Amino acid sequence: MKSIKEITDLKGKRVLVRFDFNVPIQNGKVVDDFRIKKAIPTIEYLHKKGAIIVILSHLGESGHDSLAPVATRLKKYIPTLKFVTTSIFSDITEDTVKAAKKGDIFMLENVRKESGEKNNSPSFARALSRYGEIFVNDAFSVSHRPHASIIGITKYLPGYAGLQLMDEVKHLSEAFNPKHPFLFILGGAKFSTKMPLVKKFLRNADNVFISGALANDFFKAKGYEVGKSLVEEGNFHIASLLKHKNLLLPKDVRVVNGKKSRFVKADYVDKDEAIVDSGPETIAVMADLIKKSKFVLWNGPLGKYENGFGGATEELLKLISKTDCYSVIGGGDTVAIISKLKLENKLGFVSTGGGATLDFLAKGTLPGIKVLK
Predict the structure, then answer these.
(1) Which pLDDT does position 336 carry in this prediction?
(2) Active site residue 12
(3) What pLDDT does residue 152 have?
(4) Which residues contact 365 (CB under 8 A, 6 or more apart)?
(5) What is each CA distance from 147 to 98, 112, 114, 286, in whole angstroms?
(6) Three-state SS at 308
(7) Helix (H) or strand (E) holding 326
(8) 161, 3 contact by CB (below 8 A)
(9) pTM of the predicted protein model
(10) What phi and psi values does residue 246 have, to the nearest 5 degrees?
(11) Which helix (H) or strand (E) holds 297?
């Protein structure tokens, strides 16, 4: 990739920067600003070089949400930020950008409010490009999407990678030539999307620990009772994966039945119970493995964090933060727990990506990265 550090002259140049500020909002306020903070180094770098910065981002899938709460939070770090509240192609927005001076920093409204964004419309991408002379992608977490503000725009402007995007590629690439012993932890759900990673790292890692809802699919394949636990329908040929000696599953789990909760061996779940987290015996085994590992790659929580079952994930994160092993950790819910525990600076590298992280680890690149060469 071409980095923004390769641009020789930024003074007075209009730089269109794509960030991913798709952050959780509650009651009109940002709940977790991890992704926003990760954008600051690129903004500050461009500002010091005298660029005019025009920020693009999205919020939500539908495009109905305003970026106003994000702008309010970003102003805490970048006080000179100006948020253009009108639609992207309104006369006010166009006049504001045209009148910009060296050092100005603007953020435009939610790019997904425009239908051409997700469709990767050439006319939309061309119209967007008029706001800049240079394009910078610093939105790793959405770089797996073939959208206009990620891919299409590079046909009309020279494209460069921002500092966070460069960091993501550098640290996630550690997984392709890791130090050993190498421990891979994979949680969350949607086994069908994570199957390539499981197969890949069963070949490359010393130990692969499968947890979260993914483990339920393995339990079912082993003939265990999984009760009302979340499982994914389909034939994933899990039986062949179970033959790998480096594959690890939770030894015990937390189950719930209504308001009742208990810890049981993984093969002692009742028909009216649902698995919601890993148990203490599993954490003890993982603690020992982590102490022996030199590299830990982790994506996805060990339990149903969104329903309040983040206990095992929290314990494991704390354990990793106290060891000397190098860790690379990603996944939306996992990162939310890291932010909650304030462990961002006590772990090796925390990725901003969810699906993008998984895709990059599986394929070694992303559509939004390919176009920056």
Answers:
(1) 86
(2) no
(3) 97
(4) none
(5) 25, 10, 11, 39
(6) coil
(7) strand 326-330
(8) yes
(9) 0.93
(10) -90, 5
(11) strand 295-299
Please say if 355 is a catalytic residue: yes
Q: Which of 35, 38, 254, 304 is catalytic?
A: 35
Dump pLDDT digits (tens) for 262-277.
999 999 999 999 999 9
Asked whether the beta carbons of 213 and 168 are under 8 A apart, the reply is: no
* Closest-CA residue to 140 (of 47, 43, 57, 16): 57
Check if 332 is active-site.
yes
Q: Cα 311 vs. chain centroid, distance in angstroms?
A: 21
Query: 152 near 120, Cβ under 8 Å?
Result: yes
User: Could you count the other beta carbons within 10 Å of the beta carbon of residue 223?
Assistant: 7
CB contact set of 99 (below 8 Å; sequence gap of 6+) = none
Q: Note if 245 is an active site residue.
A: no
- Tokens representing 335? 């990162």
Q: Is 88 helix (H, G, I), strand (E, B) or coil?
A: coil
* Candidate list 13, 37, 75, 190, residue with the active-site label: 190
Instruction: Look at residue 263 and give its three-state secondary structure.
Output: strand
Asked if residue 242 has pLDDT above 90, the reply is yes
Given a contact cutoff of 8 angstroms between Cβ atoms, the answer to whether 232 and 198 are in contact is: no
CB 172 within 8 A of CB 326: no
Per DSSP, 282 falls in state H
**How far, CA to CA in Å, does 68 sit from each of 52, 56, 82, 110?**
20, 13, 11, 9
Say which amino acid occupies 183.
Answer: L
Catalytic, out of 152, 332, 353, 368? 332
b (16+ CB within 10 A) / e for 312-334:
bbbbbbebbbeeebbbbbbbbbb
